[in-house]
Amino acid sequence: MTDLYQSQRAMRNMRRAAMQRGVIAVLDVGTSKIACLILRFDGPDRLREADGVGPMAGQSGFRVIGAATTRSRGVRFGEISVMNETERAIRTAVQAAQKMANVRVDHVIVCFSGGEPRSYGLAGEWALQDSVVTDQDIARVLSACDVPDIGDGREVLHAQPVNFALDHRSGLGDPRGQIGNRLACDMHLLSVEASVIRNLLYCIKRCDLELAGIASSAYVAGVSSLVEDEQELGAACIDMGGGSTGLSIFIKKHMIYADAVRMGGDHLTSDISKGLQVPVAVAERIKTRHGGVHATGMDDREMIETGGNSGDWEKDRRSVSRTELIGIMRPRVEEILEEVRGRLDAAGFDCLPSQQIVLTGGASQIPGLDGLAARILGQRVRLGRPLRVQGLPQATTGPAFAAAVGLSLFAAHPQDEWWDFDIPSERMPTRSLKRAIRWFRDNW
């Protein structure tokens, strides 16, 4: 735990240094694409940190000056599987973004969707020495949290205080400066497979870049796709990527749960490729041009040329009806949504005051998906696009860029985490607690 705490602190310091210099890159390492945005921090806002132990502030103080995206290589299920291919793809994206921005960047903040994320709810209490809450008291109450045994080979990716209580007054965002006797805190901890993080760190190093931060794609997609009211009252963001579907739940402007389903748009493409016996590239084209999940009488008559260049003229001239294509796609989409439904139920999502669901990510663009999702998830569902940020090129404003845009908001205004406080080393959390998923039912 201690070395992770130190390395996260080091990354935070590196991020501050990069912001002082004025430019930083954000990199979304996905299964189907790698996106790089270069941010410039201008004027007096450059050094202003988000105030307090709060959630993220608005998106002031930066603009996008470079953007590039390239086809991902060597990444499966949001995890690096072939190091040198991923390294090449990252270099390509970063170099293209640097060329557009006409600036060189050394520091990068990365998000990824793999690593089998697991959420835990923690609680801690601390009797105040002096009646006024100080930074030191926050550090003490965080160190008093019972940290669960997250298992061998796993590391903490996020550890965020999400609620404070002072003498039974709960729901405080930032208790510093307030007067009381007993301070309590709820913390959300997200752990992932350590090997996935290590591979990513090594890959970034091989690209001659310095890592100034790391985040979960599910988290940052929620930051950019949920509007303020949804983040406040309770909502889930479902980020449907190529190799995995991320899931994050927010309430009171904090993420309180995250998970991922190891299926996404690439699985649909693979199903089409096998079902229609066409190459993967052709299947991808058919999916994006003609795909859907609702068949009507018209779709029997709409014929799709499969095309191809196998040399077999008869085979290359084949065509299939759109109904047949929908028949291949729909079962897989239903399977992904059923899996998401199971994760939401396990998290106790139905206990939240509002149960809005927002679909984002590249695979969320399948026509008719929102209607099918509303039926399976049984909630209010809408399609989400990331917030508009200054300077973002039109090509990168779609739902496929929710994580990249969210990561730039995270870079500009990171929420305070455990490692932002000077936790006394003798009080580094070591006690264990069984995995607590439904903890927020009792707290909110």
Protein architecture, described:
Among the domains are: 118-194, Dna Ligase, domain 1, CATH 3.30.1490; 265-333, 2-Layer Sandwich (Nucleotidyltransferase, domain 5), CATH 3.30.420.40. Mean pLDDT is 86; it is low at 44-59 and 426-441. With 444 residues, the protein is of the alpha+beta class. The radius of gyration is 23 Å and the shape is globular. The strands form 5 sheets. The protein has a 5-stranded mixed sheet with strand order 3-2-1-6-11, sandwiched between helices. The longest helix has 26 residues, at 322-347. Helices cover 36% and strands 27% of the residues. It has 14 helices and 18 strands. A hairpin with a 2-residue loop joins strand 4 and strand 5.
Helical percent range?
25-40%
In terms of structural class, how would the helical and strand content be classed?
Answer: alpha+beta
Separation, N- and C-terminal Cα atoms? 28 Å
User: What is the strand content?
Assistant: 25-35%
Number of helices: 14
